[in-house]
Amino acid sequence: MSREEVEKLAKLLGLELDVESYLRAAEELARRVAEGAELRRRSADWAYIESRPEPLRTALKLLVETGDVKLVSAVTGISPETLECERIEARIPRLVV
Amino acid sequence: MSLAVADTCLLINWLSFRRWEDIFRLFRRILLPSIMVPELRSQRIRGRVEELVYRGRLAILPRADYVDREALRIFNLVNSTPGLPRIDEPEAYGLAYAALHGLPFLTDNASPKVAARSLSSLKGVVVYDSLDLLVMLYRGSGLRTAVEEFMSDTSVVFSRERLREAGVELEPRGG
Question: B132 at the A interface (CB within 8 A)?
Answer without folding.
Answer: no
